[in-house]
Design brief:
alpha+beta, 6-stranded antiparallel beta sheet, 8 strands, globular
């Protein structure tokens, strides 16, 4: 699926991530990869002025969903079976970018990783591994 096809599908299948603000943006899809951006918003901050862990976890999960669907097509019932996140640095009040990569894409499972970065910081702010279950084709 292209970025445009994913956007259209997500508007219907995943509306909770597609609110009117469009804070989460699918920027690119490529071979076994996708890039998403979480635009800065005060609602994603936690005390101390850092992007919250739940906001980064949601971005990572959304990025994995996008990269899986980009490669298998519009399968709404593909679901997360595992997500593990390591928070590595404190991201400041600015956009964060998720680079999702599929490590294995099988008939029933997709395994991938997501690296979340923020411009101006050396190295990633978080590293995520995730597995998605792909429902059987009809």
């Amino acid at each position: 699926m292209s970025v445009e096809e994913l956007d259209t599908f997500m508007d219907v299948a995943f509306p909770q991530m597609r609110d009117g603000d469009r804070l989460t943006v699918i920027e690119a899809v490529g071979p076994l990869s996708a890039q998403l951006r979480l635009r800065y918003s005060d609602r994603n901050l936690r005390p101390g002025g850092t992007i919250s862990g739940p906001a980064m976890m949601a971005l990572a999960d959304y990025a994995m969903y996008a990269v899986v669907l980009a490669h298998i097509g519009p399968v709404a019932l593909a679901v997360t079976t595992n997500l593990s996140i390591n928070f590595l640095r404190k991201p400041g009040p600015a956009d964060v970018v998720a680079e999702a990569k599929l490590l294995k894409l099988g008939r029933r499972l997709a395994v991938g990783e997501v690296v979340i970065t923020q411009e101006g910081l050396d190295g990633p702010v978080a590293h995520v591994t995730s597995t998605y279950s792909i429902p059987p084709r009809s």
